[in-house]
Design goal:
It is found in: Basolateral cell membrane. It catalyses: L-threonyl-[protein] + ATP = O-phospho-L-threonyl-[protein] + ADP + H(+); L-seryl-[protein] + ATP = O-phospho-L-seryl-[protein] + ADP + H(+). Belongs to the protein kinase superfamily. Alpha-type protein kinase family. ALPK subfamily. Pfam families: Alpha_kinase. GO terms for molecular function: ATP binding; protein serine/threonine kinase activity. By secondary structure, the protein is of the alpha+beta class. The chain has a single domain, classed as MHCK/EF2 kinase (Protein kinase-like fold), CATH 3.20.200.10. Helix content is 46%, strand content 14%. It contains six helices and eight strands. A four-stranded mixed sheet has the order 1-7-6-4. A hairpin with a 7-residue loop joins strand 2 and strand 3. The protein starts with a helix and ends with a helix.
Length: 199
């Protein structure tokens, strides 16, 4: 319960900074808000700890999902969905790819019950509650929209391709390339087997 509060309120702080940047842009409009969540201690109750947050009234929509597929494809075209996607991209860029807010859901622009993925080492002492694979999937699947462009965010497609090219260039320049060539297909095969077993 404490972790849930910590994650949501951390994501809320990022959302406030995002809102300050986005709202200053002409034509950006309303910005998603992550509502606060509070921890309540009830010593007389059988379950002594609970969380309390604002009640959201209306159609509850998942704008992104926990499997890391950055935006629910049915919601991708909505303004709230696009702005949630841009928020994810903004956080990813601001933290140099070390942190991603995910599982964005709520009513309109008010969001709750979010998750955070971090690299294994965490980010500035903070560790998220979602798999690292969400960050990798987001980097591979994200498609920029007009709000990403308005904020001047860098395309992840270009960054992802540059990282892949740099990795392949390094392996070509290493000594004993004949040894490396023998081991690369084996690693590739193991990775493919692992990926296919997940699907």
């Amino acid at each position: 319960v404490i972790q849930e509060c910590y994650v949501q309120n951390t994501a809320r702080e990022y959302a406030k900074i995002y809102a300050a940047e986005a709202e200053s842009l002409e034509g950006f409009g309303e910005v998603p808000e992550i509502i606060p969540i509070f921890l309540v201690h009830r010593p007389a109750n059988n379950i002594p700890y609970a969380t309390v947050e604002e009640e959201l009234v209306g159609d509850f929509v998942k704008y992104s999902v926990r499997d890391g597929k950055e935006v629910n494809f049915l919601r991708r075209d909505s303004e709230a969905g696009q702005k949630c996607c841009t928020f994810q991209h903004w956080v990813y860029e601001k933290t140099n790819g070390n942190l991603l807010v995910t599982d964005l859901q709520g009513v309109g622009m008010k969001l709750t019950d979010v998750g955070i993925a971090t690299l294994a080492k965490g980010y500035k002492g903070f560790k998220g509650n979602c798999s690292i694979s969400f960050i990798e999937q987001f980097r591979a699947l994200h498609q920029c929209n007009k709000y990403c462009e308005m904020l001047g965010l860098k395309s992840l497609r270009t960054t992802h391709q540059k990282q892949r090219k740099a990795t392949s260039m390094k392996s070509k320049n290493l000594p004993n390339s004949s040894t490396i060539k023998k081991t690369v297909p084996k690693k590739t095969r193991e990775t493919r087997d692992f990926i296919s077993s997940e699907h």
